[in-house]
Amino acid sequence: MGEPVRDAPPCHSRFLLTGAKPAPVRALDGRNPAPVAYFYRMGEHTEVLVVGAGICGTFLSMELERAGITHVVIDEQRSFTASRSAAGLINPVTGRRIVTTWMIDELLPFAVDAYAHLAELLGASFFSPARVIDFFPTAQMRLAFLKRLEEDAAYLQLPADEHAWDGCFHTELGYGIITSCYLVDMPGLLAAARVRMSACGILREERFEREELVVEGESIRYRDITARRIIFCDGVESFNNPYFSRLPFAPNKGEALIVEIDGLAEVAGALKTVFKKGMSIVPWRDGLYWVGSSYEWSFEHADPTEGFRLRAEAALRDWVRLPFRLLEHVASVRPATLERRPFVGFHPLHPAVGILNGMGTKGCSLAPFFARQLARYIVDGSAILPEADVRRFTKILSR
């Protein structure tokens, strides 16, 4: 996966504001001005104010730019949000029954196109094909995989040699292979996107203070910004948002370890390979691995816990034959939902207030798709998928 870009490529959409004097952004080599990129003069009007620059806010910003919609992004830089600490895996199957994930046949090709376009904007790719080596933890899970393989082999394979990984792992019951997976380098992508937003003059690196937001019918004011719409892409912060707190969010805490595993990358080869046996070992950055994650529906705080670390290290010792070292322990709270469907669209009583949230563990595949839907809705009123449209909760949001 690509390294974070130190210098962002010039923007490709015009961000001119009524009454503003344009300040041309010069090319990073200093030779020529970028032809259509301009810094915002703060205190001016924009069409959309985006709150949050995680995976949802990043793709929404890209889609707004693509549609020619002026916007400002507000985001406070924090080390471990749900997006920044996610594994970044797009897996077409899920659960103990190994069923295909919701909409995956549509989401996969869309994601390939969306990440390719984002790579053009950022000047580097953070999206790679991958596979999952799914070690069977029990005989029942092996039978479930074989049964599913008979029913639908679209994303499943059996290995030619079940002992191929014996030198690296304890593999008593063998394994299956999940194909058509992808890995997103989330820290690299979000850092590069942030650099570009800053270069384009659309990023304010500050905490959004909700009490300073004024909603006035079909427009909003926030400090010195006026906009036609505001869209919250702020993950867990929306749990307490007065406009959307009634939505059936289901906060879910995840913890993961960042480890070094001697020799595993060399054995795995060029294709990004995820290893799974209860927990997952996922290629991370700089030759390291992400190990996790927990899924806690009841928790006292969002910080890493010693209990998870001890359980995860014990599981690694039982599973992995290679030496490993713990380098970091991270935790975050995912913006999951009770019905496992995202929240997309605008408030039924406050049409200037929108949301793009609730992606749970599927943000890397869902965010690009629904960011495009939301941008198109703004442009021409195109319908948002009913299963995701926040107006399905009109009754509770109208109380």
Architecture overview:
The protein has 399 residues and is α+β, with helices and mostly antiparallel strands. It has helices at 55-66, 104-122, 139-151, 186-199, 264-268, 306-319, 363-380, 394-397, and strands at residues 23-26, 33-39, 45-51, 71-74, 89-90, 93-94, 99-100, 127-135, 156-157, 175-184, 203-204, 213-216, 219-222, 225-232, 252-261, 272-277, 279-283, 289-292, 324-334, 343-346, 353-357. Helix 1 packs parallel to helix 7 and helix 2 (104-122) packs across helix 7.
- The proportion of strand residues reads 25-35%
Within CATH, the superfamily of the largest domain carries the name D-Amino Acid Oxidase, subunit A, domain 2
CATH arch. level architecture of the largest domain: 2-Layer Sandwich
Number of helices: 8
Helix content: 10-25%
Q: Total domains, how many?
A: 2
The average pLDDT value, as a whole number, equals: 89
The SSE string, one letter per element, is EEEHEEEEHEHEEHEEEEEHEEEHEEEHH
